[in-house]
Amino acid sequence: MTALGQNLKINGDRLWDSLMEMAKIGPGVAGGNNRQTLTDADAEGRALFQSWCEAAGMTMGCDTMGNMFATRPGEDPDALPVYMGSHLDTQPTGGKYDGVLGVLGGLEAVRTMNDLGIKTKHPIVVTNWTNEEGTRFAPAMLASGVFAGKHTQDWAYGREDAEGKTFGDELKRIGWVGYETVGARKMHAMFELHIEQGPILEAEGKDIGVVTHGQGLWWLQCTVSGKDAHTGSTPMNMRVNAGLGMARMTEVAHQIAMAHQPHAVGAVGHCDIFPNSRNVIPGKVVFTVDFRTPDLEKLTSMRAQFEAKAKEIAEELGLGLEIEPVGHFDPVTFDETCVSAVRNAAERLGYSHLDIVSGAGHDACWINDVAPTAMIMCPCVDGLSHNEAEEISKDWAAAGTDVMLHAVLETAEIVA
Fold first, then answer.
1. Which of 37, 59, 365, 392 could form a disulfide linkage to 89, CB 3.0–4.6 angstroms apart?
2. What is the pTM of this model?
């Protein structure tokens, strides 16, 4: 294999221009993006990505979950491909880099290979995974989950958004139902570049996060049932207040996470209150608890403790309670060889680096179950993400993509 030199780097300006051009599609109201999955904006972003891939000499494949696979041929027709990728969909008030950097960084890596005439034994594939965010169709990482055998396609197709539209119908509507069977592709390895979405790398002054593990997660959807009643004329001792139940359960979620320190978090993120009127005691509340930790024993304990305590609260207040798991994955240990390739790349390039645990879920967490996988992270300003003010620097983006390029080439084997 040809030696990888520290002068082998991507075109940072070209990468940045691509990020800014994609950000024009599905603009937010405050400088970020609203390009939610399977919307018209998502379709437009997909089409732009496809056009760029084809211009770079890649061929585009698509499976029946809408996952996009742009392939650069390798020299060995029997060698399994090395994948790079992330997602193009965003939160309703998302930033310009969450997920997008990993997809367009993969494209830029291929463009750089083309510029330098680099050939690899293994094919290279750049992937856009469908519905990573899970904000419109829960759960997150839906399509990579089907790819990895965590969900059935029929179940995924039946997921509904807030308006009752199904994933399957919306995928068909925007024209991105492919012909490939989901999960039929085999991988030699996969690398995902992502912004950290946390403050550690910036605070430590490090260029690169070498992701060794991913946190496990439980999302628990809680439906608390009480009785609608007038806030002014109903005596306090005669109320069946679903809002009070949620408030107490929210505090419990916080207490449980604090009791499982270190490396455990928990909070209520989403809630819907019914009838949501200022002078009506809530008769129903639906909210979601998010517990995360890289320790499986802690993750299991947090869920069990919350369910037991929430039941006690409901009984004390005379409330109905249903708890439904709507998202889950066990803690992830990424492939040692792939992680070493990332660390080697950072050292070869002279970038400062830090081993880190991913606090968020990513498509790589599912793919790690079916192929050797690793992640690369770059800093983001103040650790802010899932916010239109999300920001990174051009240098951070370029450094992360340089590391991914080197790790992929080490894995895909340059042909002299």
1. 37
2. 0.87
